[in-house]
Amino acid sequence: MFNFEDINLDRIVVHNVGNKHHDEDLKLSKSEIQLDDDDVKEVLLKYFLTAFNREEFYNFQHETDLNMNEVFCYASEYFEENVSFYDQSTNIAVHLYEKSNHPNIKGGEFYLVGFSNCVVDGEVCDALGIFKSENKDTFLKVYQKQENIELGCENGINIKKLDKGCLIFNSEKDKGFKVCIVDKTNSNKEALYWKEDFLNLKLREDNFYHTQNYLDMCKGFIGDVYNDENEVAKADQIDLMNKSINFFKDKKQFNEELFKTEVIEQPEVATAFDEYKTYYQNEQGTEVTPEFTINNDAVKGEQKHFKHILKLDKNFHVYIHGQRKFIEKGYDAARDLSYYKLFFRDEN
């Protein structure tokens, strides 16, 4: 959990990083910006920090040696060896430019920002912020000209829409620092360059990670095993999805044995679930922890991937939110069609 109420913006450098694939330039400023206007500082703090609203942390990684991760090294040098802030801004900007080599990556302003007095999980520490603005909005200007009110427009950055961001907290250096990111274009393949190619991050193994990991495994089990191919009715699949996500929403602590008793229930399904867990751990190269504190942010993030819609041909969409016992499936021989009965008390 982080708290930015008393955070200070101490230093800032702005460069422009183009798309190397399109032979666009890397334009480096000559020095830091001296911010003397408190109103501008306040606007920048809102722009840089508002989008960081989830308890999802990462660590820097490298397949060979953590010290070969470029951004990790630059951050380490800044935090601990007092290497020039400006020099590190150019180092990181050059590294980002080298990774901006996909035709769909947009060029834009690159910011390196030094923060102090951050509070992260109760610890006060400094932070290094890396941000990039790629998209411009058109703003309407209304201004007085002699005795008339005139209208105009100009392009600028919408301070409510941070495109890409990274906060590196000076904490847990031995694990690859505590890092959080924003990437508003991460649905596209080319956008992976921010998290993977440029920063090279992995999810930090905390309660957010364990919650997300377990729900991802549940979703995989329903999709790969508890499915149509194994003659599991679609309504039963949705019911297991609902019970799984509701278990996580209702409990504070996760216990796997209790989960299997209350959610999976049937012994033969529990056995199949255990077998899938072994497969999932081997396939993902990760351990699925059987006990942990449930993180609500992770539950909210994963909930949208648990589908509750029963699609019947192209005629009906039935939204199922629980109580499987109120749905019955049957077959009408005269019509040669399957049907569902829905039992309810109130009609709204």
Which terms would index this structure?
348 residues; alpha+beta; two-stranded antiparallel sheet; 9 helices
What's the topology here?
Blueprint: E1 2-3, E2 8-17, E3 26-27, H1 38-49, E4 58-60, H2 70-81, H3 85-99, E5 108-120, E6 123-133, E7 137-145, E8 148-156, E9 164-169, E10 178-183, H4 192-199, E11 201-203, H5 207-224, H6 234-250, E12 253-255, H7 256-264, H8 267-284, E13 291-293, H9 296-303, E14 309-312, E15 316-319, E16 327-332, E17 337-342
Antiparallel strand pairs: 1-5, 2-3, 2-5, 4-11, 5-6, 6-9, 7-8, 9-10, 12-13, 14-15, 16-17
Helix pairs in contact: 2-3, 5-6, 5-9, 6-7
Protein name: Nucleoid-associated protein
GO cellular component, one term: nucleoid
Organism: Labilibaculum antarcticum
Characterization of the model:
The longest helix has 18 residues, at 207-224. The chain starts with a strand and ends in a 6-residue tail after the last strand. The strands form six sheets. Strands 1, 2, 3, 5, 6, 9 and 10 form a seven-stranded antiparallel β-sheet that branches. Strands 4-11 form a two-stranded antiparallel sheet. A two-stranded antiparallel ribbon has the order 7-8. With 348 residues, the protein is of the alpha+beta class. It folds into two domains: 2-133 and 162-204, no CATH class; 208-342, no CATH class. It contains nine helices and 17 strands.
